[in-house]
Amino acid sequence: MPRKPSPMPGYKFHTSGQARVFLNRKAYYLGEYDSPESYARYHNLLAIYNANGQKMPDDVPTHQIDLPLTIACLTAEFRENLKSRYANNKHERRRFSNLCTLLEDEYSDLPLDAFGPIKLADVRDLFVASGNCRNYVNQQTRNIVRIFKFGVSRELVTAEQLKALESLESLRRGQTTAKESVPRSPVNLDDVRSTAAHLSLTLKAMVRVQDSNSYAVGRGLVRATV
């Protein structure tokens, strides 16, 4: 019978008023109990603990309150939020998890308040250098800003820092080396009708309604809607 995984070490109260977690029988102090900062540090330590085979590296300080909040603290907290926010959306969960990994790979130990528009532009340049199209690069850049917006809601990021990140303008056509996306062409209606023959009655009815709308738009009988 496979061995059940051990539960994660818990977030505990200490008489000093701080939050504390025991990892490998060593106490790590996280700052004021029940504060947003202490939870972010807690989730960051668990991420380190799990990534290291449920062992803590010897060089991780036990008094976390003496350290500034880092990018890794924000992404650890955001990853925890993903579990419930996108519980039924694997695509979005994967998208934001990958963005968190990117931020951790590039800026894991950077103090959280040191990430500004220039750093955001540097990350955006990585998307461009990877050959992504301009629209995708802009979308991913906005998604990174959304991670920091979550940080504002958790009182980890200031509203001023978020506003500064939002000041970075999107890449514009003709003003970047990022390629343009290929326009999508309409699907041939004969292909749609052939596919509909294999659908359920409900889906087939939906396709027929759309098919009728497309015919009417094509003949100029009704105005196309967006």
Task: Please explain how this structure is put together.
Residues 215-226 have low confidence and may be disordered. Helix 1 (36-51) packs across helix 2 and helix 4 packs antiparallel against helix 5 (134-153). Strands 1-2-3 form a three-stranded antiparallel beta sheet, covered by helices on one side. The radius of gyration is 24 Å and the shape is globular. The chain is 51% helix and 7% strand. The protein is built from eight helices and three strands. By secondary structure, it is mainly α.
Globally, the shape reads globular
Q: Spell out the helices and strands N to C.
A: EEEHHHHHHHH
Number of helices: 8
Strand content: 5-15%
Provide mean pLDDT, rounded. 86
Catalogue the unreliable spans.
215-226
The separation of the N and C termini measures 56 Å
Give the spatial strand order of the biggest sheet: 1-2-3
List the keywords.
3 strands; globular; 7% strand; 3-stranded antiparallel beta sheet; disordered C terminus
